[in-house]
Amino acid sequence: MRGGRSQGGLQRAASIRMRQSMARQRAAEWVGHHSDDEVEINGASGVAGGYVGLFGGIAAALIGVFTGDRELYFLSLLAILIVGFAYGVLSGGANTRTMKATIGNACIFGGLFSFVAIVVGIIVSIMVMVPVMMVFIALDIGRYGS
Predict the structure, then answer these.
(1) pTM of the model
(2) Which of 37, 60, 88, 105 is the most exposed place for a label (fewest CB within 10 A)?
(3) Residue 54 CB contacts under 8 Å (≥ 6 apart), including other chains
(4) CB–CB of 92/98 below 8 Å?
(5) What are residue 4's phi and psi, to 5 degrees?
(6) Are 137 and 65 in contact (CB under 8 A)?
(7) Predicted confidence band at 75 (pLDDT cuts at 50, 70, 90)?
(8) Please, where are the H alpha helices in 68-146?
């Protein structure tokens, strides 16, 4: 038995491969973390399209019920669409390296946000408007009375 055995060629190659794979894994972890940050930034700004639709839908429903003006109601829905698009263009598509978005990404996010905002706004406005109108009709309040 020899006291101090040196590594054989196979063992050296295995340890080199192990060091290389560990270096690649650390680089991949950083890249993955970087892309996760981008998803978090864009996802957090994407939620705002839903909030524009939610609060805009409540406002549109109240405008529609209390004024009874169909054109004003549809104008408020159009305002939700425009605000959702503007918010999406201003906040969408950012990345963590430059914190800037390309115009293409910004327009895509604007289109998606406006779509989310108008869909949520219409659903919320109908969900608020119908029960309020039913109560007004049942209590003979305002123009809904007999």
Answers:
(1) 0.60
(2) 37
(3) 120, 121, 124
(4) no
(5) -115, 90
(6) no
(7) very high
(8) 70-91, 103-139
